Hints:
mainly alpha; Non-ribosomal Peptide Synthetase Peptidyl Carrier Protein, Chain A; two-stranded antiparallel sheet; 4 helices; 50% helix
Amino acid sequence: MRRxxxxxxxxxxxxxxxxxxxxFIIGAAFxxxxxxxxxxxxxxxxxxxxxxxxxxxxxxxxxxxxxxxxAFLTDLVNFLLLVALLFAVVKFIVMxxxxxxxxxxxxxxxxxxxxxxxxxxxxxxxxxxxVDDLPTLIDARTRLDELERKRGGLPVAIPIPIPGRxxxxxxxxxxTG
Length: 177
């Protein structure tokens, strides 16, 4: 029982689980803010244009059954405004460079099968070279400086094409550092 508890604690306190929990909490708070902006600001604009805050009172009665198309229209407008606003916020965040330094997506190392960044030149686990030719340190730093100047000094991921063919590397050839 003690070992099971120890394994559970290790799992619950691992970096991935804490990142997931933090992301969920921030995502819920962000969704609440976006929803409030859509309902309290944008829907008020709809109310000013159409004269009604929501359309839930619009009902069509057919053979004694109420078809509440107004509630559907209200939910549809809320959804479209929320999606448009969320799209605008994400575009705004990307425009100012937040998240540029983060590698989105992973690839699998063909040698050790660990998850690595898609732009990796050398696997950080098994140290196998993943491209035919590694750039020199001076070339890599020059390219990084150019990208930082273009981005206004914000940290960025260097987009380096990775050819399809990979070759093995001797441990002597792997750059350190």
